[in-house]
Amino acid sequence: MPMIYLKKFLLFLLIFSAKFSLTAQVKLPALVSDNMVLQQNAKVNLWGWASPNEKINIQLGWSDAVIETTANTDGNWKVTVDIPNASEKGYTITINANNKIVLNNILIGEVWICSGQSNMYFPVGKEEGTWKTGVKNYQEEVKNASFPNIRLFTVLTNASPKPLDDVIGSWKQCSPESINTFSAVAYFFGRELYQKLNVPIGLISTSWGGTKAEAWTSQNVLEKDISFLPILQQDAKNEKLYQEKLEAYYLASINQQIASAANAPKLELKKPKKEANKTSYVLYNAMLYPLINYTMKGVIWYQGESNSGQANLYRTLFPAMVKNWRDDWKQGDFPFYYVQITPHKGQTPDIREAQLFSLKTIPNSGMAVTTDVGDANNIHPIDKQTVGHRLALWARAKTYNENKLVYSGPIYNNMKIKKQKVQLFFDYADSGLKKEGERLKEFEIAGEDQVFYPADAKIDGKTIIVSSLKVKNPAAVRFAWKAVPEPNLFNNENLPASPFRTDDWVDKVEKKL
User: Is Disulfide bond one of the keywords (predicted)?
Assistant: First the structure.
């Protein structure tokens, strides 16, 4: 064989073998890595990619058995393994195929997904010059955040029109260095669970500021419900408008270059920007779908501000999103605990009502009321400790069976009209009700004319008696029904009552999509 052909043949073999060696490497998703926490007492997925039909052996640090599997013809593989009781011992997992991967410092405990928009994204520490101002007493919180058995995973913000296989991120031990940029609500929630349960805690933060619930919902779910189709229609309109602006920008650029050749003055052109996170289902595709193989205990959620203009729609959209997640994870009706958004001058009471209604329509859910820790002028209030604590109360009581723990403030149940007065009955008021200050505030009462007047409200055991001299025949009562209420009704466990109304009168026109 002539030398030139021999060199070409050898080069071909080199390229082919290099390509084969690259494809014949077992690869793991970002979540399956050093420092991860695996859900205790559960069947947990381990998965990844390899060359087609590649044989893979897995050795678990807590078991002598070797698990064998084979990648399918597309190179995908997944196995389900039994995880024992929680352990703070750092285990290893060894994966052998054409290459070898050793995962180190793996703990077994409780894993929670933490998602939403900016108030979930809001970090513990401060970032100068941004809305990330740090939580209350952030210097002290950061300094004391040494909990190596709490593990943190932050999903890098990303958007995609199609479902992705993986995310960008890594597991980190909780420390003053790692907690500085981690979700504050997630951290305070996880820290309380760790201190109460005494088991490792894994927190996966996947959130992005300014996002709507539809961005976290799959395309399939949105397309199947006629009430959600206007959302997708508006997305299409927005995309069309963006493309028209982009077309105009490039046309202007062409004309400017032609004009510049003739020494015409140069004009300043601005290329239109597109906010990647504002479109439906793109965050579900990029920041949620890649997580669904990872076995977890439950979800905490802090979102709603961006949907406040369509509160009635949120009543069905939010439960649909939760069902979407549960259907995909295939772990049944796992716990889903969420925050009722705090008062702010830019919000309406309708969105908090939609979240209150969701408490009844979403199975195995819980809602943390935050009317007493908001900020009328800052949509990112800094008291995230209280928010995390109230979410943790739901988890401790409902998920981890602290039977005597009161986990919610008063929730309106029903009313009775007694001549010129109305008696209000509440759930989560077994130990009684109390007020902060001299008199109860934020109660209003109306007759059939639907005109509301400030009401005189008094605590009567586990109920509230409401009346007004201006309303002879009462028909409805509202509590904290405004953008920025200042209610002072609590149960005896110091948990605030949720805003509510007893009527369903239409007195506000919602923003159209």
Answer: no
CB 105 within 8 A of CB 35: yes
Reply yes or no on whether the pLDDT at 465 is more than 70: yes
Does the pLDDT at position 513 exceed 50?
no
Classify residue 1: in a domain, yes or no.
no
pTM of the model: 0.92
User: Is the distance from CB of 169 to CB of 153 less than 8 angstroms?
Assistant: yes
Whether residues 260 and 391 fall in one domain: no
Pairwise CA distance, residues 111 & 38, whole Å = 7
448 shares its domain with 480: yes
Tell me the CATH number at 165. 3.40.50.1110
Q: pLDDT (tens digit, 9 = 90+) per residue, 94-144?
A: 999 999 999 999 999 999 999 999 999 999 999 999 999 999 999 999 999
Q: Are residues 200 and 232 in the same domain?
A: no
Range of the domain at 443: 411-501
Instruction: Tell me if 320 sits within 8 A of 233, measured CB to CB.
Output: no
C-alpha–C-alpha distance, residues 162 and 283, integer Å: 10
Domain count, the chain: 4
Query: 431 and 494 in one domain?
Result: yes
What amino acid occupies position 78? K
Amino acid at 108: I
pLDDT, tens digit, 9 for 90 and up, residues 224-244: 999 999 999 999 999 999 999
Please give the helix or strand (H or E) that residue 235 lies within, else none: helix 229-261
Same domain, 313 and 457: no
* In a shared domain, residues 195 and 316: yes
Residue count (the chain):
513
Reduced to 3 states, what is the DSSP secondary structure of residue 396?
A: helix
Are 265 and 123 in a shared domain? Answer: no
141: which 2 tokens? 């919180």
Closest CA to 372 of 480, 496, 482, 479: 496
E strand or H helix at 148: strand 147-154
pLDDT at 24: 60
Q: Stretch 436-460: mean pLDDT, rounded?
A: 96
pLDDT of residue 505: 93
| Percent of the chain clearing pLDDT 90 (strictly above) | 88
Place of tokens 């209150």: 356
Q: Tell me: do 206 and 341 sit in the same domain.
A: yes
Residue that is last in its domain, among 79, 107, 135: 107
